Amino acid sequence: MRIYTETERKKIYELWQTNQPVSRITELTEASRSTVYRTIKGYELKGNSESILRKYVAKLETKIRRLEQKLEIIKQVGCSPNAPLREKLVALETLYGKYSVHLLCETMEVSGGTFYNHILRNKRDNTWYAKQREILRVEIKRVYDDSNQVFGAGKITAVLKERGYNTCEETVRRLMKDMGLVSIRQRAKALYEQEKRRVPNNVLNQQFTVKRPNSVWVSDVTCYKFGNKIFYICAILDLYARKVVGCRAGLSNSTQLVKRTFKEAYENRKPEKLLLHTDRGSNYSSYTFNSYLKSIAVTHSFSRAYVPYDNSVMESFFSNMKREELYRRKYRSEREIHKAITDYVTFYNDKRPHISNGYKTPTAKEELYFKNLS
């Protein structure tokens, strides 16, 4: 009986793979039909074995990766699967968004429904989850602005992870959608065409020099982080002397905050034919706030989309407040922060010379105007 070499058997199998009939293969290789069939069967069994082995190895690798992730979770949560349920839920909450919920629950032996109920309840009660969400909002906005509104969810997530924030791209994308933040790369041309067609409502148009007090006010909201809380500071400046005519701080960047700040300033100053310039934030563009402005005959001017220079006076004021006061102190309570903001506004208006006023304070310049009228 002739013994065929590996090269000869391989040639038989290759001919079979090219759909050659057995009769033609026997003719080309001088092998018997039984030899051809044995060779084909042997190669097919060998191929199936290698495929099964590859699948088995891949399955083992997946299982090892999963076990490694479970070890990471156990190290980070600081408790064992035998700990009380409440303790496990609170511990797992800190990893929500970093690992899949199924993996978290399987590792700590918690049902998925129980964990989701815990997360949703915390959202409603504004506990740890809500605080982390607010902190992420501030950091997302900071990265977004630092990139000149270019970065999308992917790049912002990468930057946040470099800065030590445990989050995922889906969470960042959802928060960006809530805040109305979109990379200008996606909408640049559409916004450009829309801006050309749209009826302009940027009435101020960067004309920051005005002839009398109470003719043009500008307003904006900034944020300041204190512990696990975010303070939102709304301020209003009179452009004539750059005087702060209204300022309030709160824990929510809401329409209520900007409306209360403006209403208090308006009732104190009682301006006539007033123009108010703000950005396009939902708090300023809300129906409630604009209906109120219309009811008292105040004209509302908006900055253009993605053009921070349209409200540069407010940007400058908040920069000064943070560098000269907020970033220099360590506050012990919310009460101290509110007092610091009030004291800084008094200092800014009454004691701090302003270059646009010829180095007069805002109060001094305004008093000189009214003195010349009498």
Compact description:
The chain is of the alpha/beta class and 374 residues long. It is built from 16 helices and five strands.
Strand and helix map with partners:
Blueprint (H helix, E strand, L loop, with lengths): L5 H12 L4 H8 L3 H45 L7 H9 L7 H8 L3 H14 L2 H19 L6 H10 L6 H11 L4 H14 L18 E11 L2 E10 L4 E8 L4 H15 L5 E4 L3 H4 L1 H9 L3 E4 L9 H13 L9 H17 L11 H12 L1
Parallel strand pairs: 1-4, 4-5
Antiparallel strand pairs: 1-2, 2-3
Helix pairs in contact: 1-3, 3-5, 7-8, 7-9, 8-9
Structure description:
There is one protein chain. With 374 residues, the protein is α/β, with parallel strands linked by helices. It folds into 4 domains: 6-64, Arc Repressor Mutant, subunit A (Orthogonal Bundle); 78-125; 128-197; 216-373, Ribonuclease H-like superfamily/Ribonuclease H (Nucleotidyltransferase, domain 5, 2-Layer Sandwich). Helices cover 59% and strands 10% of the residues. The chain is built from 16 helices and 5 strands. Strands 3-2-1-4-5 form a 5-stranded mixed sheet, with helices on both faces. Helix 1 crosses helix 3 (33-77), helix 7 crosses helix 8 (153-162) and helix 8 (153-162) crosses helix 9 (169-179).
